Amino acid sequence: MKPLQLAKKGERGAALLTVLLLVAVIAVLAAHGIDRLAGATKLASNARELSQAKAYLIAAETIGMQSAEQIVSLSPGRTTNIGGWNGQERRFPVPGGIITAALTDGGNCFNINSLVSQNDALLSARPDGQTQFVRLMTLLDISQGEATDIAESVTDWIDSDTIPSPRGAEDEYYAQLEKPYRTANAIMVDISELRTVKGVTSAIYARIAPWLCALPTTDLSPININTLRPEQAVLLAMLSNNPDIVQSRQFLGRRTETGYGSLNDFWAEPFPANFLAPSQVQSQVKLKTRWFRLDMAVEMQSALVEERALVDAARQPARLVHRQRGDAL
């Protein structure tokens, strides 16, 4: 074979190899482009579902507020558990997903902001609130010493002054931490703020959090004796100078479905009469509910959105005063 023919065959082979390499590169680029397009499509779909889930939550909020209004209006003088609304989880199918919602009495908890009293803009320590908080924690198997330290530290966190309580902590303590910060000197918006307070470990927070709330008021915890369930007996026991969870649970278990018609009827009962509760504590017990808590979740194919909201039913129409939302994809 002549050299010229060999050269031409070599050129054709190189050209073929070049073409094959170009095809391989184009194939890789095409595959990468398709992957990116699929990813972008998935992200767009997720964003669309997340947006739809949040829209469903707004609708669920409206239904929850209307439900709170209806519960209050059905019996203006007292709020009871009749109808099984208190804490009952309901599920509602919607296009593309499902809504889970539960309405509960939002005042049956220890109001962390009741550790102080408010006079205009001044927040000052409230002994009755501190006493109840310490009782609650000891009933939850936290030592008396730890409970007292935490109660005074949380009070210092909220109150207006910068003078630490004997077992509390103010700015000077937090300024010495590895990552320094300052006290809020304001009422708490959410109980998660407790994680930043001296003495509140992760274990202690997990134990006490289910029993706490941060109402937008410094009033003592408005415990509704007509809606408080037996499993919430610790909240009744914390009002007593001689707290007893077992007797509190038994007492709530004997309550009639229609509840109490007057506070005098409640305090005349032998068990609460033994609380030896001062007048300000007696007046914190309620027959009707003002605060309602909404726990909601919307589950879509690729999105889950959860929300906890606080509803003020003292106003007509009821008003949403706080929401906390979490998104997960």
Automatic annotation (TrEMBL):
T2SS protein K second SAM-like domain boundaries: 223-270
Domain T2SS protein K first SAM-like, residue spans: 108-217
Localisation per UniProt entry: Cell inner membrane
SUPFAM superfamilies for this protein: GspK insert domain-like, Pili subunits
InterPro entries named in the record: GspK, GspK_central_sf, Pilin-like, T2SSK_SAM-like_1st, T2SSK_SAM-like_2nd
Record Pfam families: T2SSK, T2SSK_1st
Domain of life: Bacteria
Main location: membrane
Protein keywords: Cell inner membrane, Cell membrane, Membrane, Protein transport, Transmembrane, Transmembrane helix, Transport
Family to which this protein belongs: Belongs to the GSP K family.
Protein name: Type II secretion system protein K
UniProt source species: Parasphingorhabdus cellanae
Lineage of origin: Bacteria, Pseudomonadati, Pseudomonadota, Alphaproteobacteria, Sphingomonadales
Gene: gspK
